Automatic annotation (TrEMBL):
InterPro entries referenced in this protein's UniProt entry, alphabetically: 6-hairpin_glycosidase_sf, 6hp_glycosidase-like_sf, Ssp411, Ssp411-like_TRX, Thioredoxin-like_sf
The Spermatogenesis-associated protein 20-like TRX domain, residue ranges: 7-168
One Pfam family this sequence matches: Thioredox_DsbH
Highest taxon of the lineage: Eukaryota
GO biological process: carbohydrate metabolic process
Ranges annotated as spanning the membrane: none
Gene that encodes it: Spata20
Identification of the protein by name: SPT20 protein
């Protein structure tokens, strides 16, 4: 790379996204008082640009506009320019995204917003091309028009910004209406199921035509709906919808068949052409969902996909100290000598490239068959490329192939006269060779920022897979990551979580000069992870930390007037709105997950006020849950668990005893969404016995490991056989 001509103050930041813009000719500021003071002092409009380091269109806007000297001069002359990494500051992102969505009907990144010096928005959008084009206004024109408006009509803009902010404040408020109670779970669950059924794609799975996102929250809802309606046709349909979607995703191009893991979303109906970035939060949730699919179906296919995801994360997204990185970019250089990056370059293949890598004749197959023939047939490779030009507007994938398992192994085997076992080993050899070849290509950018919330989701993925698949190594990796969080993203003095830390230049772990405090989602996803890790490892220290963090979450974020939790703390004057997330999307919203966290925490602690809080959250969201539960499938699921009451499955036994291990394996192998697992090991001085005195009255029957099913700390008759236990759980 050539020596940069410009360096701005973002060079002092830790965020990979902000550092990407440190050499723009734009005089960027990070979000903070220095920028706010400058805007007030010079009476200038603030231009706020929000994105993240693996965002394709963020890269495009940077190349076209932020690297332009001429556009940079306009920006520097008329505006105070602020860059925000949305992954570092989801609170800032959410406030202004609420404005952009309300005023333009859409949203996304890069987000471009113009603010008054007191941070009130009055104009905004997403990506702008640099110059005016057909039906699209250019960024240069927008900048000059807004600068002119500020000069000529400042009072009107200020008045408009005040009106907009007041409207946003009213429409975004979520609070309990009067004496409202939690909505009835049957109505909420049935409505959500019907709404998902209407949007379901029967051919290819998923819940829209295109683009298609994995949306694990929908699949988790369907699994829970099935578990509560096992004997009905609706229950069978819910299970079929979830399993078919998971199979089609795993066969599709959204799944990286060579490098493992899942891309962020598919641009088409068939899960074929992805947007190639890979996000940690997807890997964590999908590892858990595929593990549940295995628990329910017993089909090793789903277990293999879960292992595939965890292999990718262990190899490519793991810090050597135990934490997990945020994402891999969609764009990369096609070769080591390329001058510009292309989307998907690291992952796609030309037919001639595959033929050159896989020339070997296949013994026992139809005469003249090569490895390349078998592989290309199975993965839908075409000589001229298999990417529809409609899915490739910039022609970056012209003549290339995105691998998609278009044939079943049985059909491919029959096509070439091969046995299934032989085909499997041949395809495995092909994938290994392509992986070796791909390793020679320039890798996409890796965002080495480590976020508490997303690490929490990934710990849950490892812990749940470890429990369901009986893979102790996964549980160990989850524990390592939790130790990392405790060391690097937790302040023991204040008892609070931090949002982010970063990989340093010498592979050390670094923190910002002014560390960002944890947001609601950090607490919620980490608490969920620690509860999952306790159930997978039975190490009580994780449970103790989870309950401490729940108390801290209540203190920092609970709304005692309107109920539910705010997404951010009180007391930040730069945040115009304190919001409560109201949509489960690529990630579940924090209030949805926290309902089940609270119910689980109450089971482990005996603190019944947490059950009351869970009900109050459901009451605050009652109207939305009854009208459009498809917007909150995770909270709809939580409504059912709230009304059915969590069952405490207590195993009394020696942790090292084979009979105890058999019972624990039985509990972990059964999908039951309304249970919590605990081990009563006889140590009355342990944390769990101190929290739950009733455990002291439970005994082993005839000296054997014994299971009790308890509800509100009242227990059933003891069970000593695994068969009886399995029946009890079902």
């Amino acid at each position: 790379p050539s020596t940069p001509h410009h360096t701005n103050r973002l060079i002092n930041e830790k965020s990979p996204y902000l550092l990407q813009h440190a050499h723009n000719p734009v005089d960027w500021y990070p979000w903070g008082q220095e920028a706010f003071d400058k805007a007030k002092r010079e009476n200038k409009v603030i231009f706020l640009s929000v994105g993240y380091s693996t965002c394709h269109w963020c890269h495009v806007m940077e190349e076209e506009s932020f690297k332009s000297k001429e556009i940079g001069e306009i920006m520097n002359k008329h505006f105070v320019c602020i860059k925000v990494d949305r992954e570092e500051r989801p609170d800032v992102d959410k406030v202004y995204m609420t404005f952009v969505q309300a005023t333009s009907g859409g949203g996304g990144w890069p987000m471009s917003v113009w603010l008054t010096p007191d941070l009130k928005p009055f104009a905004g959008g997403t990506y702008f091309p640099p110059e005016d084009g057909f039906q699209r206004i250019g960024f240069r024109t927008v900048l000059l028009r807004i600068a002119e408006q500020w000069k000529e009509n400042k009072d009107a803009l200020l008045e408009s910004s005040n009106r907009i902010l007041e409207a946003l404040r009213q429409t975004s408020e979520i609070h309990v209406q009067g004496q409202e109670s939690p909505p009835p779970s049957k109505e909420v669950m049935d409505t959500c199921f019907q709404q998902l059924s209407r949007s379901y794609d029967e051919d290819y799975g998923g819940f829209s035509k295109s683009p298609k996102f994995p949306t694990p929250v929908n699949l988790n809802f369907l699994f829970t709906y099935w578990a509560l309606h096992r004997t009905t046709s609706e229950g069978a349909q819910a299970l079929q919808m979830a399993l078919h979607t998971l199979k089609m995703m795993a066969h599709g191009g959204i799944h990286d068949h060579i490098g493992q893991g899942f891309h962020r979303y598919s641009t088409d109906q068939h899960w074929h052409i992805p947007h190639f970035e890979k996000m940690l939060y997807d890997q964590g949730q999908l590892a858990a969902v595929y593990s549940r699919a295995f628990q329910i179906s017993g089909d090793e296919f789903f277990a293999d996909v879960a292992r595939d995801i965890l292999l990718y994360v262990s190899r490519d997204l793991s810090d050597q100290v135990g934490g997990f990185y945020s994402a891999e970019d969609a764009d990369s250089y096609p070769t080591t000598t390329s001058g510009e990056k292309r989307e998907g370059a690291f992952c796609v293949w030309a037919a001639e490239e595959l033929r050159a890598l896989l020339p070997d004749p296949v013994e026992g197959a139809t005469e003249g068959t090569t490895l390349g023939d078998v592989f290309m047939h199975h993965y839908g490779v075409k000589e001229t490329g298999n990417v529809d030009p409609m899915q490739d507007p910039h022609q970056e994938l012209k003549g290339k192939n995105v691998l998609i398992a278009q044939c079943s192994p049985e059909l491919t085997a029959a096509q070439f006269g091969l046995e299934l076992g032989r085909l499997d080993s041949l395809l495995q050899e092909c994938r290994h060779r392509l992986s070796t070849a791909r390793a020679q290509r320039p890798r996409p950018h890796l965002d080495t920022k480590m976020l508490a919330a997303w690490n929490g989701l990934m710990i849950s993925g490892f812990a749940q897979a470890g429990a369901a698949l009986a893979e102790q190594e996964y549980v160990h990796q989850a524990a390592q990551a939790a130790t990392f969080l405790r060391t690097h993203l937790f302040d023991p003095t204040s008892g609070r979580l931090l949002r982010s830390c970063y990989r340093g230049s010498d592979n050390s772990v670094e923190q910002s000069a002014m560390p960002i405090q944890g947001f609601l989602e950090d607490y919620v996803f980490v608490i969920q992870a620690l509860l999952d890790l306790y159930e997978a490892s039975l190490e009580q220290g994780w449970l103790e930390w989870a309950l401490h963090l729940q108390q801290m979450q209540d203190k920092l974020f609970w709304d005692p007037k309107g109920f539910a939790y705010f997404s951010s703390e009180a007391g930040d004057p730069s945040l115009l709105l304190r919001l409560k997330g109201d949509q489960d999307g690529a990630e579940p919203t924090a209030n949805s997950v926290t309902v089940i966290n609270l119910l689980r925490a109450a089971c482990y602690s005996g603190q019944m006020d947490w059950v009351e809080k869970a009900g109050q959250i459901l009451a605050a969201f009652s109207e939305r849950l009854q009208k459009i539960p498809i917007a909150l499938p995770e909270m709809a699921r939580a409504t059912a668990i709230f009304h059915h009451t969590l069952k405490q499955v207590v195993i009394c036994g020696d942790p090292q005893g084979e009979d105890t291990k058999e019972m624990l394996h039985c509990v972990r192998s059964v999908f039951s969404p309304n249970k919590v697992l605990m081990l009563a090991d006889g140590d009355s001085t342990g944390f769990l016995y101190r929290q739950l005195p009733f455990l002291g009255s439970l005994e082993r029957k005839d000296g054997k490991a014994t299971a009790y099913l308890c509800s509100n700390f009242t227990c059933s008759l003891p069970v000593t056989s695994v068969q009886e236990l399995r029946g009890m759980l079902s």
